[in-house]
Amino acid sequence: MQNRRVLLKSRPTGVAQAENFSLDTAPVPAIADGEMLVRNHFLSVEPAMRGWIADAANYSAPVPLGSVMRALCAGTVIESRAPGFSPGDPVTGWFGWQDYATVAPSAVVRKIAEADLPLSASLGILGINGATAHTALSMIGQPKQGETVVVSTAAGAVGSAAGQIANIHGCRTIGITSSAAKQRLCVEQFGYEAAIDYRREDVDARLAELCPDGIDIYYDNTAGAISDAVMRHLALRSRVIVCGTAAIQNWVDWPLGPRVERHLLVRRARMEGFVIFDHMDRYEDAVAQLAAWIREGRLTYLEDILDGIEACPDALAGLYRGENFGKRLIRLV
Q1: pLDDT 10s digits, 110-134
Q2: Residues 49 and 30 in one domain
Q3: How many Cα neighbours within 13 Å face the side chain of 256?
Q4: Which residues, at least 6 apart from 98, have a Cβ–Cβ distance to it below 8 Å?
Q5: Does 217 fall in a domain?
Q6: Structure confidence by residue, pLDDT tens digits, 173-223
Q7: Measured between alpha carbons, how far is 174 from 196 in angstroms, rounded to an integer?
């Protein structure tokens, strides 16, 4: 049996392009005792992949050149010599951009229990994106009814979930996004009170108009000029959740910009970074709550699905070009 794979060919400068990856075919390795063979159905595309393949310091070791691109995937166990796993089990885990993965149980993030919901959701709203939105908002944001919450990349997989969860907690939500179409999506589908198109509008002026009493929680997925504008509108004892840095193209040279310390001091604000992998003990509870909200009709999501493993090499670059509406996935079967 042959296995199509996407390999990391070279390290990018900035955002990875298609030429940084290569496609190949190799035999599927036989499983040993304690291992299982997983057939991937969906491959995830994450903004964080940019950091995973960079030479610059990150929260995880760089993907080695010539190896299968690191990725979370959803699939089905088709053969198992691992205790606790049987053929037919739906699973998500670190299976990589490939058709098949021979892995130990340590590569599995979870067995999928939500049989009534689409398998693809386990990589987005019921995966690290939804769990990140829920856990970061509850741990760092600590939303209270009536507070104002601003979310950057508000129509993305994490941002759209964060905005809706803030609404569930009784907050008023303002989204920042990249196009008129995504503005409409934020308001009409994800329940934001208003949305700002940072490419066409003055973010600072719009925030002053929409948040006259300040911003209580800022869910930051971008850094850069967008976040610089938000900082000027923080409310007293506000909380800033740093979840992504999508606006910064290159971290090799330390990027310089406006200083935030005075804003944090005067507003007695708190700013904290968040990586979901530090909080996997909360993962199952987060997924259970998110699934319940989906079933109740209180939480919705969009998926941007590309077909075929051949779509992988350009998928990350497309994400940073803003092509996707919702969670970007690659469908294999």
Answers
A1: 999 999 999 999 999 999 999 999 9
A2: yes
A3: 1
A4: 3, 4, 5, 6, 40, 68, 309
A5: yes
A6: 999 999 999 999 999 999 999 999 999 999 999 999 999 999 999 999 999
A7: 8
Q: Note down the domain range covering 257.
A: 128-277
Task: Give the single-character DSSP code of 98.
Answer: B
The pLDDT tens digits of the residues spanning 53-69 come to: 987 667 788 999 999 99
Question: Which residue in this structure is represented by tokens 């999506």?
Answer: 185
Q: Which residues contact 188 (CB under 8 A, 6 or more apart)?
A: none
What share of the chain has pLDDT > 70, as a percent? 98
d(CA 53, CA 183): 31
- Considering the domain architecture, whether residues 216 and 115 belong to the same structural domain is answered as no
SS3 call for 171: coil
For residue 134, the model assigns a pLDDT of 98
**Which residues are CB-neighbours of 146 under 8 A, at least 6 positions away?**
170, 171, 172
What would the DSSP string read from start to end of 30-87?
PP-TT-EEEEEEEEE--TTHHHHT-SS--SSPPPPTTSBPP-EEEEEEEEE-STT--T
pLDDT score recorded for residue 243: 95
CATH number, domain of 156, equals 3.40.50.720
pLDDT mean over 272-292: 97
Give dist(CA 201, CA 96) in Å, integer: 39
Which tens digits make up the pLDDT trace of 303-319? Answer: 999 999 999 999 999 99
Neighbour tally for 36: CB within 10 Å = 25
Nearest to 35 by CA among 6, 64, 78, 90: 78
